[in-house]
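3.2 Worked example (two chains)
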Amino acid sequence: STIAAPTFTIDYAAEETKEVIPTTVEYSTNNGTNWNAGTGAKLALTPGTNVQFRVKATTTAAAGPVSTLTVPARPNAPAKDTNIATIGGTSSGQFKISVVTGQASDYEYILAASETGTWTTVDTAADLTKGSDNLYVRYAATDSAFASATLTDRK
């Protein structure tokens, strides 16, 4: 019987495969030049780097046919415009995020010294006290796209 090429899908929010890569499967991120054995865990994905998969060879069978998981690039950062990351707010000590009605949940932000921590969804227009922090804003991940690159507004 013929071995089918294994197929996997993308969890865009987690930036990994939705499925565990079994130890019987191997993958390549350089078009088959090098193959790595699955570890029985989900595979972390790099936006813009496709991944090839195949069933590993055994002592009695050659490696199976190859399938390619097309991994799209990370979207560009949102533009700094009247809707997002305008410094000023209601006072000079604030950032203001205002959003187009119906698009609020498309954005998320971190207000911190560095781009670490939990991303917060923008639900409504927000005046955020700057303090000594920077504002980091990105488009949130969707079912079909990774989170975007980050727009940084310095303190």
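3.2.1 Second chain
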Amino acid sequence: VETPAIALKNCRTRAIRFDITAQGQALRLYTFHTKVPTGRKNYACHKEELTGAATLIQNDNAENIIALGDWNTTPHALAFHTLIHKTFLTQANSNPFTHPTWPAQFMLPIFQIKLDHILYKGKLTLIDHRRGAALGSDHYPITARFGLLSERSE
């Protein structure tokens, strides 16, 4: 487990990086928790965090990458689209209207938005993506199950 610093000018942010071997293949997992973009300073920091995350992943030569966490951004945000475009990551659940994750306290989905995301690239195939039951956090948990494509299956 490593905690690489994300190169930022104004914010102190780190990602947590795990390197895992599954079915004989390397998998790199990043977790992120970006600032809530409220107020001018936090908004600038949040945008910088997403840009820094994109740079970190762009410069990573790992073949299989999963980047997940509380991104504190909706799928509609320009900075989030830029992150996906620059890194070639795919959203585990690209439908912006399913699986809202925040706030877990509201029972009506119309008052909820998706702030938590699982992104991936490489020889990974998405098998399942779900939103779990509220567990006491202000966010619902999300899970994804992936398969690894072998050299023979390409």
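3.3 Remarks
The two ends are 30 Å apart (CA to CA).
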